[in-house]
Every structure is written in C-alpha cells, then in structure tokens.
From TrEMBL:
Signal peptide: none annotated. One of its GO terms (molecular function) is kinase activity. This is Inosine/guanosine kinase. Coiled coil: none annotated. Residues 134-293 form the Carbohydrate kinase PfkB domain. Pfam families: PfkB. It comes from Pelagibaculum spongiae. NCBIfam families: PRK15074.1 (NF011655).
Length: 433
C-alpha cells in the first residue's frame, strides 16, 4: 500500500489519464497526513497457572471477571512475573490495534491519546505496550499517570480452561486537557471506541466527547467501533444518540449490530444504521464482511461482478461506486457490498481476536488516502464531490478482507509487517477501466 506514507513516486492508487500529473515534480512525502484515536490502553497477559492460583486470588474458574482492586492486580502480576509463568504479554485495545495496523499498512504516522505509566520499568506491562506498538504511532501525547495501565489476564489451567481477570488500572483516567485541539482538527480521521463511552462518570468519557466535538466542527470523519454485545444492549439509547450526533463511519460485528439495531441480518442492520451514519463496516465471521454507504445517483457505477440478492434485492449492483458523505449527495442512494473471507480464510484459526480491527484499519487507510490525494492534487476529478474514501465499495472490501485474513493467519491482532508488494496489482485492473 503506497498512499499516504513517505513513499516514492510509484503509488498504489492509479489515476485516470486526465488526472495524471508530472511525476518528476511531485513528491508525495511533503504532505503531512495522519489519523488520531483514543483508547483505554491495556496489555493482554497470558499465563499458565494451577487451580490453586485461582483460589489464592479469588478468581472464579472459566469466567471473565473484574479484579477487586489495583492492589490485587499488582499482586497477581508480581506473582506471575516472579514465578516466570507469563507466556505472552502484548499490547491490546481495539483503537490501539487499529492505529498500529494503520501505521504498518500506510507506513505513516498516527497519533494515540490515552494514559501511560509515568514510571516505566523494563519488563512490565507498560514497557511491553510500548514495545508492541509501531514506531509510526505517535505516543508523545499520552497522559502520564502514577500507576499501571489496564491489564487483561488470561489464566490457563492444566485442563485448558481459560479464566479472565480484568484490571482497568488507570486506563480510564484520560482527561480532556490531554486532547490537543489542533492535532484532532488537522487529522484525516478520528477513531473512537464505544468502551470509552460506557461510563459518563469517568474522565475518558469527557475526553472522548471533546475529541468528537472538535472533529465534527472541523469536518474530520469520526469512526466509531463498538464494544461487546452486552455493553451495547445496556447503553443502546446513548450509543445511538452519540452516533447520530458525531459519527460518520461505524464498525461492528453482526452480534453488536443486532444489539444496536434489532436486526440479525447484516444487510438489514446496515440499512438501519445508514439512517444516522455515512458508512457501515460490518464483519460477519464466515460470511465475510459488508460495507454499506451512500453515493449520488449520477455517480453510481454498476458492478461487473455477479448480481447478488439477500434481504435486499440486487444489493451489490452499484458496488463499483465510491462512498460519499450523505449530506453532500444531491440524490443519495444506498449502496451495499459484501465479500466472502479471503481465500476461504486461513486453514487453521487459533485466535479471531483483532480481525475486525484489521479490517477497520484498511478502511481508515483508504479514508486517509483520499485526504492525502486531495491535498496533493486538490483539482483532481477524484475530489469533485464529497467522497469519503479514495476507492470504491468493492475495492475497500477487498482490502479490508485481505488485511483481516493477514491478522487471522498470524494469530495476532497487530500486524508485524505490511501486505506483500504484489497486492498492488489488485487495483490496477479496476482503475484502468
């Protein structure tokens, strides 16, 4: 993927002949594009323990639970460290994963807002978080806190049973003062997660609201990814109100979509969400993923792929159209696209964690690419309308699907490298039409 990173003249997105530019005089590297995001910074800790350890720390076997306090989490963590029981310790968090993957794919900067322990000891969770995050992710705006960030313990006993203990630490203590207006206002997109909106009494809630307001005032696309089905059901009204007020792009899985809209069918759920947003990314496990949004009637492009029907007839007819912001459409038409898992999916999937975050990173990359290209070539026909992405619904689906596959294949929510260079050829045939 070539846009929008510090790349040479060769680029991923071919342009029409009428819009070509002097490649000898244009340098892509001088345009400063980036995306921003807010996350509850957390580290996933996996350890093998005996049943007696669960009993000693008061953890119910085989369930997910909050640790009683930060002291209990510190004692558990110290015990695991001292006895060398920790098998894996990686940075987590849905926005943290997405920003990392975006920076790997785009080879470009992203900015993460959140908290970080002010005193970092080598080998501890905070240290691991920094080690597992791409150097392209700018962490200089993190708020220092006098304690630990979040920790999610996955404790595996000899019978293979997994017990989860969650310690929020100080991950929710991000205050609005550490959300710089100019950084949000000048970004290509703002990434948010519903988890930071789960409790209005926490400082991170107010920080999220502030960032969303800044983005809206400056017409920066706001992207919201949902949390667990249980949380969505508990705060359905509040989430719908926030989405309607601030959000342009919403991302979720089919279970979360059903909780939010009442529709189990992905197409109907997407159609319902399009009442309040411009673009919907819905991952549906073995069904692949759906991308739905708007395009102006006179900008519609028919697909050359087989026409498909489901709960909506001929739903993919215009999937070669480019997504647009609804308010900029003279005659908005809903457009739907769907793609099956890439190559049928990996032969063996040991962990599905992060597949949706990977798909979202691809969508955000395409949104940033549109902004990048618009700053380099503002007079290009690619920017004659209020487009939201650089590529078509169908092409964004292909890209998101490919990244999701890469995450599943490596069994880690954070990409260790970008996609193979040969992926560039996938776009050529489409844009040469």
């Amino acid at each position: 993927m070539k846009f929008p990173g510090q790349r040479k003249i060769k680029h991923y997105f071919p342009v029409n002949a009428d819009n070509r530019f002097d490649r000898e005089n244009v340098s892509f590297g001088h345009v400063n594009t980036y995306v921003t995001g807010i996350d509850q910074n957390i580290v996933d800790v996996t350890a093998h323990v005996s049943d007696s350890v669960l009993e000693d720390f008061g953890l119910g076997k085989g369930i997910s639970q909050l640790l009683p306090d930060n002291d209990a989490a510190n004692r558990l963590y110290a015990y695991l460290l001292d006895n060398k029981l920790i098998e894996e310790e990686y940075a987590g968090g849905t926005i943290g994963n997405t920003l990392h993957n975006y920076s790997v794919l785009a080879d470009d900067r992203s900015i993460q807002f959140g908290v970080m322990s002010e005193n970092i000891v080598i080998g501890t969770s905070s240290y691991r978080y920094l080690c597992n995050t791409s150097s392209k992710v700018d962490l200089t705006f993190l708020q220092p806190v006098p304690g630990s960030i979040g920790r999610a313990f996955a404790l595996i006993t000899q019978d293979g049973e997994r017990t989860f203990g969650i310690s929020p630490g100080l991950m929710n203590h991000l205050t609005p003062e550490f959300i710089p207006d100019d950084q949000v206002a000048n970004g290509s997109a703002l990434l948010l997660c519903a988890y930071t909106l789960a409790n209005a009494d926490l400082p991170i809630y107010q920080a999220t609201i502030k960032a969303a307001k800044i983005a809206k005032e400056n017409e920066v696309p706001v992207v919201l990814t949902m949390g667990s089905r249980q949380m969505v059901e508990a705060r359905k009204k509040e989430f719908n109100e926030f989405i309607a007020e601030y959000v342009n792009i919403v991302a979720m899985n089919e279970s979360e979509a059903e909780a939010l809209t009442g529709y189990a069918d992905p197409l109907l759920a997407s159609q319902d969400l399009l009442k309040i947003v411009d673009l919907v990314l819905l991952t549906a496990g073995p069904e692949g993923l759906y991308l739905s949004g708007y395009s102006d009637r006179d900008a519609l492009r028919q697909t050359s792929n087989p026409i498909r029907s489901g709960s909506i007839s001929d739903f993919n007819r215009y999937e070669f159209s480019r997504p647009m912001i609804k308010k900029y459409c003279n005659d908005p038409v809903q457009v739907f696209a769907q793609i099956d898992p890439y190559m049928g999916g990996p032969e063996r999937i040991s962990n599905t964690n992060g597949a949706g975050d990977g798909a979202l990173a691809a969508v955000v990359h395409d949104v940033a690419a549109k902004d990048f290209h618009g700053r380099v070539l503002p007079t290009s026909g690619k920017h004659s309308r209020g487009y939201l992405t650089y590529s078509s619904f169908a092409q964004v689906c292909k890209y998101a699907n490919r990244v999701s596959y890469q995450v599943l294949a490596q069994s880690s929510p954070r990409l260790s490298r970008g996609l193979p260079e040969r992926e560039d050829s996938l776009e050529e045939a489409y844009w040469s039409r």
